[in-house]
Specification:
318 residues, alpha/beta, seven-stranded mixed sheet, six-stranded parallel sheet, 13 helices, 13 strands
Length: 318
C-alpha cells in the first residue's frame, strides 16, 4: 500500500509540473542569454544595453546571466560564437546586426533567436514576400527608418542636388537593400545616383574620396562598416565640403549633417521586452518584427562647418 501511495504522489507531482509548463510557467531559477554583437560602435552598443536593461528589469537582475560575445566586425566569427551558444544550450540568443542573425539562424532551429539592429528580415534570411513574421524560432526588431522620408530630406536640405553618391559596404546585404530603395526614391526626383561600395574598412578612405569628387551630396545607410569608420569619412567630407545624410544617428555624429533616425537603445529595450515574454512562455513563432519610431535629427557642428541651414522640425543631436 505504501508503494502504491508513493507512486500516486509521484505521478501527481509530475502532472502538476506538466500543467505548469503548459500554462507557460517555468521552474528555471536563472536564464542564460547569449548575445552576439557584430562590432563595437554607438548604435549596436546602445541596442545591447537597452536589451540588457529591459530583460533584467522584467525578470530581475539575479534571474539572467548574459554571455556576451563581440565578433569584432569579423563576419566569419559569428557562426563560431553561435555554435558555442548552441553547445552551451543557452535559453535564448540575441543577435545584434544582420551577420549575427544569419549565423544564429543557421546554427539552430530550436533555441529562440531575437535579432536587433537588423534592417530587413526578409532580405537577411532569404524569405521571399516576407509578411512581417518569420514564423519559426526567430523574431526581433528592425532599425529600418522610412527610406522615402530619408530621400526627401536630401531635397529638403539641398534642393539644388543633381547627383547623390551612396557610400556603403557591399558585404552587408541590408545595406544593399537600402541602396536599392533610396536609388528608386531619388530617381523619382530626377536625381542621378552613383553607388560607391567598399568591401571593408581598408578601402573606406579611397572610396569616400572618389564619392566626394563625383557627387553633390552623399548618403550613407545604416551600415556597420561605415559606422566604425565614421570619423575617417567625416574628415574627408569636411575637407571636400560635401554634406552627408545618414541612415542613423551614430553615423551622423561622426560625418553627417542630418538623419532620420531611431533610438537604438529603445530598439534594444523593445527586444529585451520580447525576450522576457518568450522566456516566460511566450510563443516566438507568432511574434511579428517590431519597429521603432524615427525622428529628424541634425549634427550642429557639421552643419555649421558646411554652412548648412537646418529648418524647423529637426532635433539637435547632443
Amino acid at each position: 500500500m505504501k508503494k502504491i501511495i508513493s507512486v500516486l504522489m509521484a505521478l501527481t507531482m509530475l502532472l502538476s509540473a506538466a500543467l505548469l509548463v503548459g500554462c507557460g510557467e517555468t521552474k528555471k531559477d536563472v536564464y542564460t542569454v547569449g548575445i552576439c554583437q557584430l562590432v563595437t560602435h554607438d548604435a549596436l552598443d546602445a541596442a545591447t544595453q537597452g536589451f540588457k536593461d529591459a530583460l533584467t528589469e522584467k525578470l530581475g537582475a539575479d534571474k539572467v546571466v548574459f554571455d556576451f560575445q563581440n565578433a569584432a566586425n569579423d563576419i566569419n566569427a559569428c557562426p563560431t560564437i553561435m555554435n558555442n551558444f548552441v553547445t552551451k544550450k543557452v535559453d535564448l540568443i540575441m543577435a545584434n546586426a544582420t551577420p549575427a542573425l544569419q549565423a544564429a539562424y543557421s546554427a539552430t532551429n530550436k533555441i529562440p533567436i531575437l535579432g536587433t539592429s537588423v534592417t530587413e528580415y526578409g532580405v537577411a534570411l532569404g524569405i521571399e514576400n516576407f509578411s512581417g513574421t518569420v514564423g519559426s524560432n526567430v523574431s526581433g526588431t528592425s532599425d529600418l527608418a522610412p527610406l522615402d522620408q530619408q530621400a526627401a530630406m536630401i531635397t529638403e536640405l539641398f534642393p539644388d542636388t543633381k547627383t547623390v553618391g551612396i557610400l556603403y559596404c557591399n558585404a552587408e546585404p541590408n545595406s544593399k537593400y537600402q541602396v536599392d530603395v533610396i536609388t528608386a526614391e531619388l530617381a523619382k526626383k530626377n536625381i542621378t545616383v552613383k553607388p560607391f561600395a567598399f568591401s571593408d574598412s581598408n578601402d573606406v578612405a579611397s572610396v569616400t574620396n572618389a564619392a566626394c569628387a563625383d557627387s553633390d551630396v552623399l548618403y550613407i545607410p545604416t551600415d556597420n562598416t561605415a559606422a566604425t569608420c565614421k570619423e575617417t569619412i567625416g574628415n574627408i567630407v569636411l575637407t571636400a565640403k560635401k554634406p552627408v545624410i545618414t541612415g542613423e544617428q551614430g553615423i551622423c555624429v561622426g560625418c553627417g549633417v542630418a538623419t532620420l533616425s531611431i533610438s537604438y537603445y529603445d530598439l534594444g529595450y523593445k527586444t529585451g521586452e520580447m525576450a522576457a515574454e518568450i522566456l516566460q512562455g511566450g510563443d516566438i513563432t507568432k511574434m511579428p518584427i517590431q519597429y521603432a519610431p524615427a525622428q529628424k535629427m541634425y549634427n550642429k557642428a557639421m552643419a555649421d562647418a558646411l554652412g548648412v541651414t537646418i529648418p524647423e522640425g529637426y532635433t539637435e543631436i547632443k
